[in-house]
What does this fold into?
Amino acid sequence: QVNLVESGGGSVRTGGSVRLFCGAPEYTFSVNMYCMAWFRQVPGKEREGVAAIDRYGDTHYSDVMKGRFTISKDYAKNQLVLQMNSLKPEDTAMYYCAAQVITPPCLGLEAREYRSWGQGTQVTVSL
It folds into this structure.
């Protein structure tokens, strides 16, 4: 496990954009060595997979994202990124970063497939 830390969350109006970041303080951590993903959760609902990315940059998205979100790895900054555009009130949630040591195909969107997690960063979309 690694200690993941998310950042970039906040409040935004409908139609706006937010960019989330995820990294780890351990100097040995490298986004290239992990399957990584973003999840989100609303109180009273199960944790929902948003997007996943493997070591080669291949990605997989939840069907409900409709092309509005983009997951990527910033290798220069050693961070996982989630770009969220055209935000809607229903996107309001706590967003979590997750990682798992590379185990192909590692593009899953189920929480049980990941062992390392961040504390979460809140994104609130208002009207």
Summary: The chain has a mean pLDDT of 94. DSSP finds no helices and eleven strands in the chain. The two ends are 38 Å apart (CA to CA).
